[in-house]
Amino acid sequence: MRFKIPVALAAALARLAGAQPTAAQAQPAALGQPAPMIEVQEWLSGEPVAAWEPGRVYVIDFWATWCRPCLEAVPHMNALAAEYGDRPVTFIGLSSPDSRGNSLERTRQFVQQGVPGRAGQPVLMEYPIAWARGRTTWQRYAQAGWDQSIPHVFVVDGEGRLAWHGHPAEMDDALGEVVAGTFDSAAYAEAEARRAELKARVAPLTREMTAKFRAGDVKGAIDLAGEITELDPVLFANIGAWRYERLVQSGRAEEGGAFVTGLLDGAWKDSASALYLFAFRVSGGPDRGDLGLALRAAERANEVTKGRRLSVLELLATLYAASDDLERARGAVEAALKVAPEGEREALRTRLIELGGTPPAEAPAPEGTPRPEEAPPEGGG
Question: Per the domain annotation, does 18 fall within a domain?
Answer without folding.
Answer: no
